[in-house]
Amino acid sequence: MLTLHGLIWRHLRTGEVIGEFGRLYEQQYAVALFNKVRFDVEGGGGPQPQLLHRKVPLENKSIFSGSLFQYLEENKKWRNRFLFVPDSYNISYYESKQAHDRGLQPKGTINCAGYRVLTSMEKYLELLETSLPGVKAKVGSSPFLKCATQFPLILWHPYARHHYFCVGTEKEQQKWNAVFQDCVRHSNNGLSEESKVQTPAFTDAVRLYRQARGQYGTWDMMCGVPSQILANLVMEKLLPELRDLITPRLKGKLQERQKNWILISDAVYGLVQSQAQTQYEAIVQSCEAGRPPLEASIRTDMDQIITSKEHVTSKIRALVLPKAEKLLKVSIQPYISSILEALMEPTSRGFFEVRDVFFRELVDMSKNLLNGGSKEKLGEHMEKISMLAFHPVKMQGCYERVEQLSLEGLQQRFDVTSPSVFLQRAQILMREQMDDAVYTFEQLLHQSLEGQEEEDLCKTIQKCQDRVIKKFDYDSSTVRKKFFREALLQVFIPYMLKQLSPSCSELPRFQELIFEDFSRFILVENIFEEVVLQTVMKDIMMAVKEAAVQRRHNLYRDSIVLTSSDPNLHLLEENPPIDWAGEYGGEKNQEEVVDGDAGSHEGDAAAQKRRRMKQVVSMIQEDGTGTVLPNESCIEVSTQILLSRTRWQGLQRIQILSHAALASAARVKERALTGVCWPMYQSWRSGAFL
């Protein structure tokens, strides 16, 4: 148990970290507000997407449900549990399916932010040994956990409690692994894309806090909602101190000490997260209360603020540019092409696989409708295809293509801790592209079917398919080029800032050049980063442009625009969601698929609604009977696994802010370059890769 001294010490550590973060957040809040207002006034450019975007893809949908074994630490036994994941992606586990259908409270709920999914005990034990460094197990000693089958599924977290599951077959393990990976992928992206001020201010404050402590590289624990990210920030500092304090007091065998350490770490993490949430909400409330006068001041003095910023920028550029260009020539330029190629090949393979999966699904539907297909049959197929992007098993092959991405050697040279931040970013973009393609196809097909005879179904599907594939190829090229630029920035910019900061110690004096009334909206450290970014951005843009000119990996040149695009297509984006099953008479069949094993339970309205909730994937029936653990009196495990789509709240969309209009005509050429650099700078600062 934590002592009173330990609780006070933990409280002080949390208050210290959140206090410093709060100071940085208040500064960056004013800057983010200025950028947002400026963007509203000036607008932004860039190629327009050809595909439509679905705003609420998982409305009235659940993700998946099914049964597997879970290890219960309180009695050290494996028991059958029914897992249900709603569109929030929080995993709830119940005593049984009947308990879920009756509307009983779950035994527990898991928020997957920050977790890793492991499918081998060896890998788990390897990570477990790092939790208590310096404490070695005796030869021949056994771990505190023995898996009941050969197919474990373990949710591991560096600070929170671990969760242990297992299934009876390798096929089941692969399916559940795909589902758990989707839960982690979604939960890690907890920052709201709609918060155009709070989210940039938050990510900037976190990044600047870590940079002040010499941590410039990527951070794997920038995942979850703000309170979770702040708790991770606290634990990054608190955990080593806590380990030194607690480890000498842990008694018993190594296995018992490891188990007790996990419980202690989880308890501290929960307390820290609760405290971080309370303090963060107070910081945000204070900033939001002062927003109206700040915004009024920005709109009144916009031109003067921009002029003042340009003046300071020119002074900082004169100081920084010679040093930055020297560093760029020696340490950056030789590596741009090789790193870009390492990013392009696996990422493009992943996007190509997305295209192929989409194409194959439409071809299969056309084949099934070829002989005597009706609109009712079409409705059944489209009900399934509409959620293709959120099908964890069908999308897993796409995700695995990009997992071959390797940035070996960058960890030491450029302080890239692991490629996981790039992998997850690419996978989220792939899922978004798949859903955009599916949604666009839905809208085009639905529009084309109005007043259409059933004999022409296949021909209509083919025409819509060809139009969507063409749009997908264009958008895929645009999205990938943007991803490559952002990834290269995330590799190089932190390294350059780290190398240049010691030689630019006189930067704070430039703050004196800023009028006091404008000092909240113009910060020297932000301008310093903009100058560094503009230095390297030209080379990055040129490298990506050359790849597009050579048509490598099917990239389009920036000058290519789809002039034959549908001018009124985006009007369909405002249409309500299409209920394929209901509109074309397939509702009954769909409910039978989803609730095929639900039985005739009676319950309250909430339980009835929960049972009627549609899932992405129909029931998957394994061969043979369920696995039953020896010497256990638990309920027989169902081998039916319900897999469903993963909710996509969307990736933290990168805020694009155009650079200010320059008053002098002599700066038109410079503005052309800045118009490209500024959105990329905002992309890097927005936390997409942080």
TrEMBL record:
InterPro entries: Niban-like (IPR026088), Niban_1/2/3_dom (IPR059060), PH-like_dom_sf (IPR011993), PH_domain (IPR001849). SMART domains: PH. CDD domains: Niban-like. This is Niban apoptosis regulator 2. Belongs to the Niban family. Residues 61-185 form the PH domain.
